[in-house]
Amino acid sequence: LAGIEFGKIEKRLLSGDVDARGKLLLPQNGKATISPIIRGVISSIEVMPGQAVQKGQVLAYLTHPDYVEIQEQYLNTINSLEYLENEYNRQKRLYDENVGSEKKFLLAKTEFQAAKAKLTALKLMIEQIGIDPKEIEGGKIFSKIPVKTPITGMVDMIMANLGKNVAEGDALFEITCRKKLFIELEVFEKDIMKIRKGQRVSFSLANVENRMYEAKVISIGGSVQRAGRVVKVLAEFENTNEFLFPGMFVASQIHTGEEVLEALPAGAIMNYGSGNPYIYFTVEQEGNKNFFFSKIAVKTGFEEDEFVQIEAVDAIPQNARIVTKGGYYIQAEEGKGE
Question: Of all helices (H) and strands (E), which one includes residue 44?
Fold first, then answer.
């Protein structure tokens, strides 16, 4: 009737906890501001705010007469390079045979090398503005160029509109990737000596009820902030919730000194938190008509997930069944005997 339940001492991963508050942050590579590398006019916008995008996806197209001119120069340079190379080889052969002049040979060499350098530069520029040089070599000329995202994420802001004349470096889009987030925690200076890289962090958010997340400490600040006498600690976690955003406040426990220790549920420990905790146990087995209980003093340590580290002051019989629930009923019966 008392609902007494039994169990045994278990091995549990327990730790001392340091409480800390903080907020969610984006890592530095989790946000991208996209700007054109060459001037142009916005001819189309291919995305909307809040839209998910993949790395390399086109966000907008720009148009400008300069784009056609660059491609024309590239084709003209390719066409002239063959002639300049042949002329260079001819002048080199004549010079090696002491038939041609050194001046003509050096001039042909200079013109050939200059054309090669120009072709390389034009090819790099064309690749950077988002056009495949092979397509131009195949006869295509593009009147517009794409603006692409360098990261996978979500369109956070659009600072562009159709017909806008934009220059190099003008911000057009902001993309954020919340797949991986940081937690910036404030740890009091008295606790900072307990913190180490790699320690596990459990945290919750005000807007997500009854849900705990796990993170890992990746860096510890090098100075104490005057306001509050705290040290900044960064933890990292994989975000699987689309409703977690940078700036949200978190409450966390940093698990320090984690060890596999002998533990019991907190409900098994009588007078827990006082100076004389103890537990009840019995060696009686199921089916016995009468149950005789004994109690033994214990020392308590770390507590986590409703389990408490314990160390019995005296030896517990090997076949003992420890009371994990209903101990207060036994305590009441014990009091009647007194």
Answer: strand 40-45
Residue-wise pLDDT for 147-175, tens only, equals 999 999 999 999 999 999 999 989 999 99
Nearest residue to 309 via CA among 253, 252, 268, 254: 268
Q: Give the Cβ contact number of residue 247 at 10 Å.
A: 8
Burial 135-148 (b: 16+ CB within 10 A, else e): ebeeeeebebbbbe
Q: How does pLDDT run across 313-331, given as a tens digit for each residue?
A: 898 888 889 999 988 888 8
Q: Residues 270, 282: contact at Cβ < 8 Å?
A: no
Cβ contact 14:304 at 8 Å:
yes
Segment holding 296, helix H or strand E: strand 294-304
What does pTM read for this prediction?
Answer: 0.63
How far from the centroid of its chain's Cα atoms is residue 192's Cα? 23
Q: Which amino acid is at 245?
A: F
282 membership: H or E segment, kind and range = strand 278-282
Q: Which amino acid is at 133?
A: P
Which residue reads 């950077």 in tokens? Answer: 128
pLDDT of the residue at 338: 58
Distance CA 40, CA 129 (A): 11
Q: What share of the chain is helix, strand, coil (3-state, %, to 5)?
A: 25, 40, 35
- Region of residue 275 (phi > 0: left; psi between -120 and 50: alpha; otherwise: beta): alpha
How is 2-39 classified by DSSP, letter by letter? ---EEE--EEEEEEEEEEEEEEEE--GGGEEEE--SS-
